[in-house]
Amino acid sequence: MPIAWIAIVVGVLFVLAYRIYGRQVAARFALDDSRITPAEKHNDGFDFVPTRKSMLLAQHFASIAAAGPVVGPIVAALAFGWGPTLLWILLGCTFIGACHDFCALVASVRHDARSITELARLYLGDWGYRLSLLFIWMCLVYVVIAFTDVTAQQFLAREEWGGSIHDIGGGVATSSFLYLGLSVLMGIATTRWKIPLGIATAIFFPLLIAIVVVGQEIPIVFPVANPALAWSLVILAYCAIASMLPMWLLLQPRGYLGGYFLYLVLAVGLLGLIFGGFRVEYPAFTGFFSPRGDSLYPFLFITVACGACSGFHGLVCSGTTSKQLGKESHARLVGYGGMLLEGVVAVMALSTVMLWAPGSPVLSKSPSEIYATGIAHFAHAVLGLDLRWGLTFGMLAFATFVYDTLDVATRLGRYLVDELLARKGSARGHWMGTLGTLTIPLLYVVFAPNLEMGGKQVPLWSVIWPLFGSSNQLLAALTLLLTSVWVHQLGARKAWVLVPALFMLVTSTLALTLQIVGAARQLSVAFSLPALLNALIAAALLTLSGLFGVTCWRRLRVSPVPA
Q1: What pTM did the predictor assign?
Q2: CATH top-level class for 3-163+223-286+309-463?
Q3: Cβ contacts of residue 519 below 8 Å, gap of 6+?
């Protein structure tokens, strides 16, 4: 079967989803541009900044499109086949993921840019607030741990060309730091020097493309015994600094440039899918159980994770994006449309598996290498780009996905600590929140850089990915439950948001339970620190989510009081 057929059908379905179901969802909230948004009301040039719709979409897309929609679909397809993976991406994005993001964004905007935890306190009381704070805190910690390790491993990648080994990962690292420098310059140019956005884009975007080549000429290589640890420390230090900088100086221009770079990757990928003449080689269905013994339900859903629905998106929507929304009508494009764009990213990643027949050496590589190899072939097919530079292009795209999310997660963690300690506006409170958020990830990367699973050493991210996926999907369920309480209090119909919430809640709860059982079996044979930690954290997440769910259910049984 030609992959082009699948790409065209997916594109049509997502457009219809945005125009039909997205419009229906938006109509339920009667978006009104006459309402003053929090960005306009509290414009301080630091956290609250009214932002152009196109720039905000790019920045929001770059913030939410991390490793999840790339790694998840690839791992799921290898385990169960591309058929069920594609079906869940389409249905999950349209009816759950995009609705989740849109609802979280609108709810925050309508409540003066309050975060998910502040909304929990408003509708569920102090008990619900504390439960949500603890749960979200744990989820953010795992986001930072997983993505820090993924990025560090990416910067160590090596490839052979012309009979010699090249530090392609080190070149991508160089390009990444040059990209951050360009972002700061663009922020200064558009804000301080008042250069029009169009002119700034015409200047800085070509420079971003140029650094793909420049980076490979001057790769960064750490001459130390443990370069992965060194890179992890550098990345965490960057997160600490970036989370404290004003939005206009780094986060907005970086997200804008990164968003357009990812648009370019999508364009090249789609052109390659449609006009490259590729055919589907991988099986659509490989069985109800993966090679490691995981069942299709529920593990397909928590493995795809961000590619169909992500609780992390709700934190971005209510933590940073709601503080930048200039008009309420922009919420549909940014919230609902942003998630559909992530669905396109997920399908693109899935297609990089579909290119290869079972047993291909490419499929034995890491998800990031599978993805970059696929992008390289797409670029070669439509642009004639040498596979070496196509591979570099794909790896920088993957690094951009991951890198852009790390400092956003850290900033969100700072917001949560600010709320808890009532230190909003305090520089000391900001630093306490930032350092507190990064302490646990620091301990992980220092004391558990290499873990054993099944008798062999594996990277840290692969050990905690199932737990990350489960907690992420469970966070989405809890956010949808909270939204259901809000919609209920408005006296409106809530089934359209409550049913997806219950589906995600049951699926994620079952996945966590099975992981606890699996960890217990492993511990009964031999002690394993990762297994013990995963079991304890999974149990804690289950407990917190159960208490949160009961609190929401009690509020849903109370007669609505329209606001």
Answers
A1: 0.88
A2: mainly alpha
A3: 528, 531, 532, 534, 535, 538
